[in-house]
Each structure stands twice: as structure tokens, then as C-alpha cells.
Amino acid sequence: MRFTALPTRLLAVACLVAVVAAAPAAAQKSGKETVASLAGAIVYDFPSSGTVTCADLNLDDARFNSITEDYEFKIDPPPPVGTTAYPIAQGGGGNLAGGLTPDDGTLTVTLSSEKVMTSFLFANGPTDPYYAISAVIVKGGNQGTNVYYYPNLTLSDSGSFTVTGGRNAISHISFCLQPTIRPSAADGSVSGSVTNRSGGAIYNARVRLTSLATGAVQTAYTNSFGYYRFDALETGDAYTVNVYASGYTFATANATFTLMGDQTVNFVAK
């Protein structure tokens, strides 16, 4: 049997077609990578009007390699402005997809407007599996999608979570849940700096830490270098930290997170 070699140009085109055809759905949508948010999300901009799911991200090993399950909790219609808590169940504003089954965890989200989610917090229940969030998908109808990816997983984050460009209303939000190991009880800390926009230390700024589990409030004041610290904190609990300094306003004056060890929260005045 004789084989005829393809011309080099045709061979290159054939290989390119084969690669595109084999690529998973998420990989075909080009995105811009930046870093944002308290928990260090990597943000991918998907300008396409198509729907991006956790299953799509699971297929895209090149960028989302910490996602190994299709588990998705989708809030559709989008949450109202303010703070809303959702049980991980079908109905009541939440939808289970990708093989996710009802769980005793609770997801709390806060929106400052119909265009911006400012924080989320996932609280696991006492039974396993224990979940963390690997990605958050913020969709705006046919106006594109932003994917906030967490390579090291997270239970919470604070920032500005928007649709592509931040100019359009959110149509739905999906959270990709990844089974992981439940942390053991141990002490953690929260520390950071309070600075002005030039990087100078703000002395005697008041920083308050509130445990969302117990309601206990601790207060610290920054030293001459602008630093503060809270020690001997229960890990696995959710906390809110906020700052006040006379004569200053802050781009982000508070943050909510689940403490997994030693957490750094810095505040910068406008």
C-alpha cells in the first residue's frame, strides 16, 4: 500500500483543525488573566455569550487544574441586593448541577448592587463531604462571563465580583465545589497593615475582628509602622475584619473570610 505525504502547509492546517476540534468547550473561549480579591482569585474574562459551567472548567486542565469535579451550585435568578443565605439544595433560589447532591452546608453572598457581588462565604455543615470553592462564575446574560479561579481553594472571599467589564447586571452566579479534607482544630492569626495611598503607615487606626460563629469582637490598634495582629483564633470559623482611621476613607474597609491558618488582610486608604 502506498502513502502519499501531505504538503507541509496542508499538514499544518490539518493538525490545527484537529487540535481545535479536540479542545474542551471552556478552552475555546479566550480569557484575560489578572489577579484580584482578598483570597487571590485569578480572573478569566470570557467575552462569549455562551454559558460557562463548572464541567467546562473541569475539562480545561491547562488553566483550572485544581478542579477535578463538575459539582456546581447555581444561583439563578441572581441574588437580591444585600446579604442572602442559601442552603445547598435544589430550590429556594439555588440549583444543583454537575452531580452535586444536597448538603448541610450554607452559602452566603452579598451584593452591593445588581452589578457587583462584594463577598461570599461557604459554611460547611458537620457531616462530610467537606467542600471548598474552586471557582466562581459570574454571568451577565449575553454580555460575557468572568470566572474567578482559586488554585488553592477557598471558603470565602471579599472583593468586586462582576460581569465582564462590570457594566452589566449579573444574570446568575455559579460556585464550583471541590471535596477536600476537613481542617483540624488549631490556632490561627489575622494580621496586616493599614497604609495611605502613598504606602505610608497609618498609626493608631482601629481594627475590629468579629467572629461570625460566636459574635465575639476583638479590637486592635495599629502601631507606628501601621501593623496590627490578632492571635489565638479558632481556625475553620468565619470572621469579619474592618478598619477605621480618623480622616481617612478606604477603598475596601472590611473583609469576610473563613480562617484556615494565618490570614493577612491589608487596608489601603484612598
Structure description:
With 270 residues, this protein is mainly β. The protein folds into two domains: 155 residues, no CATH class; 82 residues, Immunoglobulin-like. Helices cover 8% and strands 44% of the residues. It contains two helices and 19 strands. A seven-stranded antiparallel sheet has the order 1-2-9-8-11-3-5, with no helix packed on it. Strands 4-6-7-10 form a four-stranded antiparallel sheet, with no helix packed on it. Strands 12, 15, 18 and 19 form a four-stranded mixed sheet that branches. Strand 1 and strand 2 form a beta hairpin. The radius of gyration is 22 Å and the shape is globular. The termini are far apart. The relative contact order is 0.15. The N terminus is likely disordered.
SSE order and pairing:
Elements: H1 8-22, E1 33-36, E2 41-46, H2 54-59, E3 72-75, E4 82-87, E5 94-97, E6 106-113, E7 116-123, E8 130-139, E9 145-154, E10 156-161, E11 172-180, E12 187-195, E13 206-211, E14 217-221, E15 227-234, E16 238-244, E17 254-258, E18 262-264, E19 267-268
Parallel strand pairs: 12-18, 12-19
Antiparallel strand pairs: 1-2, 2-9, 3-5, 3-11, 4-6, 6-7, 7-10, 8-9, 8-11, 12-15, 13-14, 13-16, 16-17
